[in-house]
Design goal:
This protein is mainly alpha-helical. It has one domain: Alpha-Beta Barrel (pseudo Tubby roll). The strands form two sheets. It has a three-stranded antiparallel β-sheet. The protein is globular.
């Protein structure tokens, strides 16, 4: 699957699914399209991009997350992929699949800090110290 086809699937799924604040149970009961899996996102990235471990920060407040090169590589890849393809914040969050759903299900939790910070600060909080992805 090409990155562009992946984005078209993501866009059509967003149009057919409830908002991110509704439960995954409601999505599955409604008979709408299956949500994006984290592994599917990683597959598209790995198939079409060269990855270089890259440090990045996520957040604009005093609770920003600093990620060393090689740390939280899934988040690094997804944020870099989403920047290259100019995905919206909602499209980007959906690329995290079940991990995004975990955050939605536990709004007061402290796991998945990169997802939580991105939900709060969006693209204005993402800063890379280099280029993490390059098309093959």
């Amino acid at each position: 699957m090409t990155p562009e086809f992946f984005v078209s699937q993501l866009t059509s799924q967003l149009a057919s699914q409830p908002s991110s604040q509704q439960s995954s149970e409601a999505v599955s009961q409604s008979g709408t399209a299956k949500p994006i899996d984290f592994e599917d996102t990683m597959g598209v990235i790995n198939d079409h991009f060269h990855y270089v471990p890259t440090a990045f920060t996520n957040g604009v407040s005093d609770i920003s997350v600093s990620n060393e090169a090689g740390q939280n590589e899934g988040s690094c890849k997804i944020f870099a992929f989403a920047q290259i393809l100019q995905l919206s914040e909602e499209q980007t969050l959906r690329c995290f699949g079940r991990f995004y759903q975990d955050v939605i299900n536990t709004p007061d939790g402290n796991d998945h800090a990169n997802i939580r910070n991105f939900m709060r600060d969006g693209w204005k909080g993402i800063h890379f110290e280099g280029q993490a992805l390059k098309r093959k």
